[in-house]
Amino acid sequence: MTVSQIMEKMIAFSEGNIHDIDHFIRVWTYARTIGELEGLDAETQYILEVASVTHDIACPLCRKKYGSTNGKYQEQEGEYMVREFLSDTGMTEGQTERVAFLVGHHHTMSNIAGTDHQILIEADYIANASENGYSRQNIENFMQDIMHTGSGRRILKAVFNL
Fold first, then answer.
1. Residue 34: its pLDDT value, please?
2. 3-state DSSP call for residue 40?
3. What domain range includes position 79?
4. d(CA 86, CA 35)
């Protein structure tokens, strides 16, 4: 399946939750842009985009099961959910496992494992910071301590007028 077909499937999976849909579209847009600007190869770009579309797949379940979409709950539940979600997409086992790893670690800021992981964290942070009104200090700290891609830094600076 193409990323657009997976996007359509994820929109349907979201059952009309506009917040969730808007969020993953925003994360996908940032991730796609940063990945292209960083010059990712086609395979890594594809995996990054699929992961960015599906990164919060566990949010509806976490709301019901835990009453919270805490990042650790999302990682714990999402890593398994995304495997089943992608089972009919024609993705290889290796691709699916990498997406599952990224979904299962998209809130883990330590031991970042690969450029695709780094970009997913950066894209999700930019979207979350704008949606949740993070403080300028929080944003500057993230940029200094966590962001490592040049294009991610430029986008963050432009979005928040830093």
1. 98
2. coil
3. 3-159
4. 21
- Rounded-to-integer distance, Cα 63 and Cα 61, Å: 5
81, 128 Cβ separation under 8 angstroms: no
For the chain, count helices (H), then strands (E).
9, 0
What is the per-residue pLDDT across 103-159, written as a single tens digit (0 to 9) for each?
999 988 888 999 999 999 999 999 999 999 999 999 999 999 999 999 999 999 999
The rounded distance, in Å, linking the Cα atoms of 49 and 3 is: 7
Region of residue 127 (left: phi > 0; alpha: psi -120 to 50; beta: else): alpha
* Dihedral sign of CA atoms 118, 5, 55, 99 in order: negative
Query: Which CATH number fits the domain that encloses residue 128?
Result: 1.10.3210.10
Give mean pLDDT, residues 32-36: 98
Percentage, residues of the chain above pLDDT 70 = 100
The total number of structural domains in the chain stands at 1
- Where does the pLDDT of residue 71 fall: very low under 50, low under 70, confident under 90, or very high at 90 and above? confident
Cα dihedral: 32, 140, 138, 24 (round 10)? -10
